[in-house]
Amino acid sequence: MEKNGRQMVVPGQVIVTGNEYLPGDGAYRDSKDVVAKRYGVIDISEKHIRVIPVSGAYYPRRGNTVIGTIIDVLFNGWLIDFQGAQNAFLPVAEVPRYINRNELREFLDFGESVVVKVWDVKSRGIDVSMKMRGFGKIEDGIIISVNPNKVPRVIGKEGSMVKLIKDATNCNITVGQNGKIWISGNSIEDEVKTKNIIDFIINNSTANGLTDKVEKHIKSLGLKVDSPEIIKENTDE
Amino acid sequence: MNNKMVKSLYEKRTDKRKFDEIREISAAVGVVPSADGSAVFQTGSTKAIAVVRGPRTLHPQHMQDPRTGILRVNYGMMPFSVWDRIRPGPSRRGEEISKVCEWALSSVVDLSEFPNTVIDVFIQIPQADAGTRVAGLNAAAMALAHAGIPMKEMISAIAVGKIDKTLVVDINKDEEDYREGEGSTDIPIAFTSRTKKITLLQLDGKISPAELKEAIELGKSACEKILEVQTDALLNGNKEKDEVKSKKEKK
Amino acid sequence: MSEPIIPNMLRSRIIEAINGNTRFDGRKLSEYREIKIERGISKNAESAVKVSFGKTEVLAGVKMGLAEPYPDSRDEGTFMTTVELHPMASNDFEMGKPGIQSVEFARIIDRGIRESGFIDFKKLCITEGEKVWQVFLDIFAINNDGNLLDVMGLAAIVALGSAKLPVYNKKEDKIEHELSKDSLPLVKENLSFNMTLHKIGEKIVADVSKEEESISSYRMSVAMGEAKESPRITAMQKGKEGAISPEDMENILNTAELKLKEMFPRVKEEVFGK
Fold first, then answer.
1. ipTM of the predicted structure?
2. Residues C43/B127, Cβ–Cβ less than 8 Å
C-alpha cells in the first residue's frame, strides 16, 4: 500500500529479487531476495534498499539532536532521560563552560531540560554533548512529545515545514529527533497554537498535499501564512 | 480431503463451516495509543489484544543481557472472557501459554540492536471461543511489527483440530469440547511467513502420524490466509487514523 | 520507552497556562474529552462494556455466581469489584499483585455502588441463609491518558445497567449457560457517577490528561446523583498530598454540581437505556 507514493512492507516480505541492490537498514539478503526486516516504508537509493520505520521507539544515531530531562546528577556529569531505551550521559567536559565538581547541580539540576547532540551510541547508553551553538539548557516555553518517526514531516523538505509554522506563530521551534519538540513563544496561547499545528501535521502525515492542508489549518486558527518561499509538495525525509 | 476407511462421526461442523474454512477474521493495529506497538486480532468470537512496550531498560540489572534485548511475553484472559469467570491474577495455564508464545516469537525477532533492554509483549483476551493462544500470537506478531521491532519474518498461527476422525481448522468451543468417538484433538500451530518453519506446536488428544502430517498441511494453508489479513491490517488498517479494519469475509 | 518525568519548566508552564484558563489540548477547565461507550464486548459475560474519555480506555464486565450469603446479611446478595491497572495500559503500571492504586480505585468504585444503595441486594436473595446471587464487577485498563478513575466509574455503572441475570435452574440448583431477560435489581433513584477534580496551580480542573494528573497537588473524587431533582453526594475521596482550602472546597462542590446537571441526563440514558 502507498504512503506518499512509497510502498510499505511487513517483515518477511520480499522487496526485490536479484543482485543489483544491497540490503541496508531494515532489510536483509536471503539468497536471491532482499527481504524486509521491519515494518515500514521502502527507500531505494542507487545501490541500497532500506526500510524506514513509521512507528515504534526512537533509536539514537550519531549526530542526532535530542531533547531530554535531567534525571540524575553524578560526580562527573548528568544522566538524561530522552525516552529512548537507555539514558544519555552528558559528561561535565561536554558543556560550554568550565564547571567544577561542586557546581554540577547549580548548572543543571534534576528535572531541568536540555537540547543536546548525540556523539556516541554504546550498548549501555548514549553519550551526548552540549558544547556547540544551538544546544544548551531549556529555560522557557513548553516541550511536547510526538511520534519520533514523524519528525521529518514536522521539519519538512529543507526545513520548510517548520519555517512555515515559525513564521505563522512567531515561536522558536527546536525539533528533537527523539520526538520531543521545544516551543518557545511570547505567550502561552501562541505556544499552544503551535502545538495544535504540529499535532495536525502528525495526524495528517501520510496525506498528499500536506503543505496545503497545513496552510489551511493555520489560517483556520486565525494566523497568517507567508506563501512565496514555501517549497511545496513536501514529500521527502 | 479425509481419506478415511472408517467414517467419522463429525460430518458437519457445528457452525456449518467447511473443514478448511476460518471464521470471520478482523484485525487492526494501533489500538492502544500510548504503546510502542499494538494490535487486535479476532476470528469468530475469539478476540485477542496485544500490546508491545519497549525496548526499555530491563530491571533488575542482573537479568540484562549485554549482547541482546530480551523478549518477555505475558498472556492472560479477562475475567469476563469466558462463561465461568476467571479469577484475576496469574495462572499456570497463562504462564505456560506465555512461554510457548515467547519461544514462537523469539525465533523471528532480532534484538541484537538493543542490548540490556526488554521488549514486553502483553496479550489479553476479552472474549474467548477457543483458539485463544493462536489469536494472541497473531495479534502479538502484528504488534511487534507495528512497534518497529526487527523481525526476519511474520508469524501466523491457527488451531487445527481432529474432531473424531475429521480434520478441521480454527476450531470453536463446541468442537474443543466434543466427546464422541475419538473426541477432540487440539493442535495449535504457528508458521513463519517466508520460510514456513513451525515455531509453535502443541497437541493433546489422539492422532496417527499420518493424520498429523495432514493436519500440519491444513494448518500451513490456513496460515497463508491469516498472513494475508495480518499484512493487510498493517498496511491499511491503522486504527490511529480511522476505523478501517481489515476484514476477511466468511468464504 | 520509559514514562516521561515531567520537566520542571513544563510543569510550571502547564500551571501558568491553567492559571490563565488555557489547557494544552484547547479544552476549558471543566470540559470533558469525548466520551465513547460500546456494549457487548464479550458474549460470555452477563455484560461487558468499553468506555473511553478521549484516549483513556477501559473494559468492564459483570459475571454472576451462586453462593451462601454472609452470616451477617443472610438475605442479601454479594458484590465484589476488581480493578486491574494492567501494564499494557501504561509504562507506569507493573506486572504482579495489585498495587495500592488499583486497590484504592477498586474500593472507591465498590463503595460508591454499594453504599449508595444502587444495587438492591435483598432482591438478589434466592433462599434466605442458603443461596444468594454473587455479582462480580471486573474492570480492566486498556490505555491510560489520565483520569482512569472516572472512566472506570462510568464503565462500572454502564456494565451494571446493561447486565442480564443468567437463567437459574431451581430444580437442579444450578446456573444455565444462558442469559435471562431480567436485569440486575437496580434502584434507579440511587444512581450516582464519579467525577474527579484536580487542583492545578490556583484552579480546579476536570477530566485531567496524563500530564495534568501528574502535576496536580490533590485530587477530589465526588460521586453524585439526583434524587427528585435535587443533587445528592454518595461518595467522596481526597487523594495525593495537597491540602484543600475552604474556597477550594466551595469551588469543587459548585463545579461538581454544575457538571452533574450537565452530564447526568446522558449518564442515566447510557446506564438504563432511553
1. 0.93
2. yes
Enter the CATH code of domain B25-234. 3.30.230.70
Size of interface B-C (CB pairs under 8 A): 86
| pLDDT tens track for A74-90 | 999 999 998 888 889 99
What top-level class would CATH report for the domain C8-272?
alpha beta
The 3-class SS string of C137-165 reads EEEEEEECCCCHHHHHHHHHHHHHHHCEE
The Cα–Cα gap between B251 and C71 comes to: 56
Cut 0.90: pTM above it: yes
- The alpha-carbon radius of gyration of chain C (Å, integer) is 20
Q: Is the CB of B103 inside 8 Å of chain C's CB atoms?
A: no
Quickly list DSSP for B138-161: HHHHHHHHHTT--BSS-EEEEEEE
Query: CB distance A38–B36 less than 8 Å?
Result: no
Tell me the backbone φ, ψ of residue A167, rounded to 5 degrees: -65, -35
* Sign of the four-CA dihedral C255, C257, C258, C263: positive
First-to-last alpha carbon distance for chain C, in angstroms, is 44
DSSP H helical ranges for C121-245: 148-162, 210-215
Round to whole Å and give the CA distance between A26 and A50. Answer: 6
List, for residues B146-196, the tens digit of each pLDDT value: 999 999 999 999 999 999 999 999 999 999 999 999 999 999 999 999 999
- Dist CA B174 CA B187 (whole Å): 15
Domains located in chain A, CATH noted = 2-53 (2.40.50.100), 65-138 (2.40.50.140), 142-220 (3.30.1370.10)
Cell of A106: 547549580
**A129 interface with C at CB cutoff 8 Å:** no
Between helix B209-236 and helix B132-146 the angle, nearest 10°, is 40
